[in-house]
Every structure is written in C-alpha cells, then in structure tokens.
Design a protein that fits this description.
By secondary structure, this protein is an alpha/beta fold. The chain is built from 21 helices and 22 strands. The strands form 4 sheets. It has an 8-stranded mixed beta barrel, surrounded by 5 helices. A 6-stranded antiparallel β-sheet has the order 3-2-1-6-5-4, sandwiched between helices.
C-alpha cells in the first residue's frame, strides 16, 4: 500500500473504530490498522498522560513507535505535534535532538510523521508513524493521515462526551460522592466479589431540615460536602461512599461479611462528624445516625441488606443512639415494617386499626369532659404495633390523606356513638392527634370541616391536638392549616408543652385554645420545686391568655392534688383512666353521666 493514490480506508478499519467500546479501544484499533493503510514500519497513537499536558504516552499498535512509552511534551516528536497542533514530518531522523528520534534511529528508522487529533480547538492526542526509508512520507501521506486523524478525533469526541455523561450520572453534584444509582450498582458489583460480601452503613444527618431552614440551602449543601469529605477520609481504598438523596448517605465497606470493620468505621465517622462544620463563616453543629447492615446469612441479597441498615438507622434515630447494628431484633422489626406497609389498608377496612380513648377530667370536680383518641393496631401475627411506628409508616408510604380522612371519620363516628347513648356527652369533645406531616397536607382543614358537617358536629367537637410542634416552621403549610382550622371554629391543643424545643413564641404563632403540660414536669413536681414553679408559671400565663391548661401523665393522687393546687384546669393520665376501647368508654360515660342503661337497646 505504498502508492497513496491507490489507498482507501478499509471497511475493516471503519468497523473496528465504530465498534470500539471506549477511547482506549478506538486508539488501539487505529494504531493497529495504520501500517496497513500507510506503509509504515512502526505505528502508535499517543495521548496526554494527565490534565496538565506535561507528558504524552504512547499506545502501541503492531510495534511501538519508539522504545519509551512516556514522552515529554517538550523535546519529543509527538510532543511537538501535540503542542503545535500541526502535522510534523521528519525526512531524516539522523542527528535530530529528540528523545524519540534517537530511539527510532537506533531501531533503524529514518523518517517519521506525527499528526494531531484535533477537536474543537483541542488536541486529543497524535497518530504517529515511522519508516526505515529517509524522506518516505509525502504530501499525499500527510493529507491521508490528517483525514484519518479528523475521523478518529470525531470518534474520540463522541466517546468523551458519553464518558462525561456517565461520570455526571454516577456522581452526586453536591458532594462529589457516588450518585444513588451508581452506589447501588457498586453494592451489587461488590456483592459478587470473590473476596467476601460487603457490609454497609446507612448514614443520616440529624436535623438537616432545620439547618436548611435556619441557614439556607447553600449552607446546607456546604455541610453535606464537609460530611462527605470527613467520611471519605476514613474509608478504605476499596470502600465507596454514595449519596442516596437529601441528607442520606451509604458507605459500602468492601469484603466485610461479619460487619466488624463497618462497626468500627461507624464509630470513627460519628466522632469525626461531631465537630461543627464551618460553612461560609457559619458554624453548624452536626450529628449523625448510622445503621449498620452486614451479610448475616449466605443467601442474603442487597435489597435485604439495605432494608436492614435503613431500619437500623431509623431505630438509632428513634432511640437517640448514634449507631445501631441490624441484629435479629432489628430484623424482626424490619418484618413488622414490611407487614405494616403491606397490610395497613386492609387493616383499616377490616377494623383491625381502632382508637382507644383516654378520659380527660376537670381537676376541681373530676367530671368527665372528653377524651383523647389514641390509635391502636394489634397485628394478628406481630402483635401490638407501636403507634409512633405506625404514624411513621403512614407518612413514609404517602398515606397521609387516606389515613387522616379515615381517622377523622372513625373518631367522629365513635363520638356519635357515645352521644347516642349518653346525651349529656353533647358539648364534650374527642381529641385527634395530628402530626406536622398531616397538617401540611393541603386537604387537612377541609377534611376536618367536612367530617364535622357530616356528623352534625361543631368544629370544636373534634379537638385538634398538635404533636411534634417543634417541627412546624413559621408560615409553613402546617401553620397555615392550623390557622384555617381555628378560623373555622376548631379547637386547637398544643401537646407535650414545657420540654424539648417548645417555645413561648408558639403562643403568638399558633391559635392555641388548650395547653397540654408535659408529663415529665408533672412527675417531677413532688421532688422538684423548679418543676412546680414552671407549671405554676405556665398555668398562670395560659390563664392570662384565656387558654385552658391540662396536665398530662397524672398517675397518683399526690400529683392530682399538686396539679389542682397549681391552678391547672384539666388532668389526663392513668390516675384518671387508661385508654380503653369505645364500648368501654361508652360504659364509663354512662356510669358517670347517665343515659340509656342498656347499650343494646
């Protein structure tokens, strides 16, 4: 093929570069085919060794172009073509002061040509040929080489774009960690590794919503980056960190079938992340909750491992521990969660999920003034379902509208039952608990109003009890719902007041009608003067604002007397009555208020 006029690009060459899976394959195919297209005795393709273009490395074809595979940009033939972005033709290599020229001469080669691979003004690499005859490469060779270089550069550009898109898809744009998809793919890959299955850490940044609300999302993103950096510094060379979304990360601990390395790593991560993050001059306190999952049985799959670690993390968050390992107890809890998610709808339809009612009494007279509705589900296989877990799964599975509407109707129907048999219960209320998530549902206020209308109740008959009020932010959807309900006549109670993040500012934000004083203050009254002072102060403030006060968790006659002495209006707790099914509560109301003696009548 020395006669260039007779040369055309072989179909095999076109197929080879078209079918190449990546840039490296394109370059190797090119270097391999070049001596068959142009009668050269040596061929290679070279590309930059690093992003700073300090050196260029050769990828050999049939025979490497020269001895060295790494060439300095300055002082080499291929480097000159790369830097100048022009085809370099050398008719006689003898005596030339290039490192690769000396090597070519030593191999009996006398002429060389190096053509740049250009794309968008950038040089991606070079195609390099050499021959034993001086002056072998003609203008026609140059023209052919440059045409081939243009073709190969276009293939390289396509692969670069594809690889860049792949990197972007596999990289979290905030932290630089693996994306969710890439992390799960890596977990699947390591699960098949002969060196042993991996364990995982499911990591959650505590209170991230509050960080965003207080400092803004830009600072929140900065905190996530710093957390990721601290975790990455602690990982082993084959471990991987991915961001699953929001404030959740997964650390994949390679070849750790018993989870021992993961447990130690979790402790190190918790310690490292206790230091505040400094972002844009703002110091942000951070803490983590971590669930550790490990392949406890030979047939475990990645889905089960993730579920174990996820639930262990939520267990850690719920019990205020930093780290929980997914042991047998946690795994049984995972089974319970799966049963809740799968069977909740049917359980509501079958009447398995019910409400029990805890009496509320006036402290001065001990008269029955109402009750709080408390959800109960006695699962036929798993036994009693903890109410906080049930509510968590309702919110996690997107059932807030369905459950809230159902709960309002069920409680209203139970209230109607009591009033049917106990006429004097008219004017007394049942309280339903609503979380910030339920209050944030746009249809919550309308559902409450429609339920009251359907049963002929005043809006105040279904008292709305706000739980976890610290999670309600100024002017958010939950606060707007409360204001709408109050404007329509609903009666609003603030639960568990006096501990945690509760603040007096709530009195100016929320339309509060009843203040439920936390049981921890009530139980501390007998021995703690400070608790008594706090209760008296809160009760006095409520009275000045026209707000009814209620003591929670009253369990003894001494606590009853002290609450009465403090001026608290109402009391609730086992001393006044435990939560009981609606039939038993109706019997209780009948015995105290009178009415139809026979419930079957």
């Amino acid at each position: 093929m020395g006669d260039v006029a007779d040369v055309h690009l072989p179909a095999g060459f076109i197929r080879a570069v078209s079918a190449a899976a990546d840039q490296e394959a394109v370059l190797r195919a090119t270097a391999s085919w070049m001596p068959r297209i142009i009668a050269a005795e040596r061929s290679s393709v070279a590309l930059p060794l690093d992003d700073h273009n300090l050196a260029i490395r050769s990828i050999g074809g049939t025979v490497p172009l020269s001895g060295p595979t790494i060439h300095p940009i300055a002082g080499s033939i291929v480097g000159k073509a790369f830097r100048s972005k022009k085809t370099i033709v050398l008719d006689d290599l003898a005596g030339l002061d290039y490192a690769d020229a000396h090597a070519l001469n030593k191999a009996g080669l006398r002429s060389a040509i190096a053509g740049p691979l250009l794309s968008g003004g950038r040089c991606l690499g070079t195609i390099n040929l050499a021959n034993s005859k001086p002056g072998f490469f003609s203008d026609a060779h140059v023209e052919l080489l440059e045409s081939i270089a243009d073709l190969i550069a276009s293939f390289l550009n396509v692969h670069q774009l594809a690889e860049s898109e792949k990197v972007r898809a596999e990289t979290d744009d905030v932290t630089g960690s693996l994306s969710r998809r890439a992390a799960l793919h890596e977990l699947d890959r390591l699960f098949q590794h002969p060196g042993g299955k991996p364990s995982i850490l499911f990591i959650d940044l505590d209170g991230f919503k509050r960080i965003n609300d207080l400092h803004g999302h830009r600072t929140g993103d900065g905190v996530l980056r710093q957390i990721a950096e601290r975790i990455n510094l602690l990982l082993g060379p084959d471990d991987r960190l991915g961001r699953l979304g929001g404030d959740e990360f997964i650390a994949i601990v390679s070849a750790d079938p018993d989870g021992e390395r993961a447990a130690g790593l979790a402790a190190d991560i918790v310690l490292a992340c206790k230091l505040p993050a400094l972002v844009h001059g703002v110091r942000v306190a951070t803490s983590l909750s971590i669930g550790v999952g490990y392949p406890h049985s030979p047939d475990i799959d990645t889905s089960t491992l993730l579920s174990d670690a996820d639930h262990a993390m939520y267990t850690a968050k719920g019990c205020e521990r930093s780290i929980v390992i997914a042991d047998d107890l946690v795994r049984r809890q995972v089974g319970l969660v799966a049963a809740i998610d799968e069977e909740m709808d049917a359980a509501m339809d079958r009447g398995e999920i019910v409400f029990h009612y805890q009496p509320v009494r006036k402290l001065k007279s001990l008269d029955l003034v109402g009750a709080e509705a408390l959800v109960r589900w006695n699962h036929p296989e798993h036994g009693p379902v903890p109410p906080p877990l049930l509510i968590e799964r309702i919110e996690a599975t997107g059932r807030i509208p369905q459950f809230t509407t159902w709960a309002m109707d069920r409680i209203a129907r139970d209230l109607q039952t009591v009033r049917r048999y106990v006429p004097d219960f008219v004017g007394k209320s049942f309280a339903l608990n609503l979380t910030p998530g339920q209050l944030s549902w746009s249809g919550c206020a309308d559902a409450h109003a429609q339920t009251c209308d359907r049963y002929g109740f005043d809006r105040a008959d279904l008292l709305v009890e706000v739980v976890e009020s610290s999670e309600i932010q100024p002017n958010d959807a939950a606060e707007q719902t409360l204001k709408k309900m109050a404007a329509e006549g609903a009666f609003i109670a603030l639960d568990d007041f006096g501990v945690g993040h509760n603040a007096l500012a709530y009195f100016t934000r929320f339309p509060i009608h009843l203040l439920k004083l936390d049981q921890s203050l009530v139980r501390g009254m007998a021995e703690n003067e400070a608790a008594r002072s706090i209760l008296r102060g809160l009760t006095s403030m409520a009275r000045e604002l026209g707000i009814i006060s209620l003591a929670e968790g009253v369990e003894t006659i001494v606590e009853e007397a002290m609450c009465r002495e403090a001026g608290i209006h109402h009391g609730q707790g086992w001393h006044f009555g435990r939560p009981i099914p609606i039939d038993d509560f109706t019997e209780l109301a009948l015995s105290e208020l009178g009415g139809i003696a026979d419930l079957a009548a």
